[in-house]
């Protein structure tokens, strides 16, 4: 007999040592579900929205690139866009580099 644990309590602990396999899978499955709803799903939604925005670009729109360059679209090819950033100064950038479409009038005048 132990001074700290009685025999009845020690026997009850030994009987409960075999957990249910279903409950042991509950935590990993729950973590996968949480990762999906908090990390994977929102990221894929943002990627889908960005892809749609890039495919809907039109000539004359004012955009902001991922590098922070503000300009107006003057020409659109398959993978590249010509962006006028000042009078007679144009850059050719990839479509995927467009981060945001700015509201009309953001660039007052490119003169």
Helix content: 25-40%
- H/E element order: HHEEEEE
Which residues sit in consecutive blocks of at least 5 with pLDDT less than 50? none
Strand content: 25-35%
Strand order of the largest sheet: 4-3-2-1-5
Overall spatial form: rod-shaped
Q: Which structural class do the helices and strands define?
A: alpha+beta
Q: How many extended strands? A: 5
How would you sum up the major sheet? 5 strands, antiparallel
* Residue-averaged pLDDT: 85
Could you say how many structural domains there are in total?
2
Using the CA coordinates, give the radius of gyration.
30 Å
The end-to-end span amounts to: 95 Å
Number of helices: 2
Tell me what the structure shows:
By secondary structure, this protein is an alpha+beta fold. It has two domains: about 45 residues; about 45 residues, SH3 type barrels. It contains two helices and five strands. A five-stranded antiparallel β-sheet has the order 4-3-2-1-5. The longest helix has about 35 residues. It is rod-shaped. The chain starts with 6 loop residues before the first helix and ends in a 10-residue tail after the last strand. The model has no long low-confidence stretch (mean pLDDT about 85).
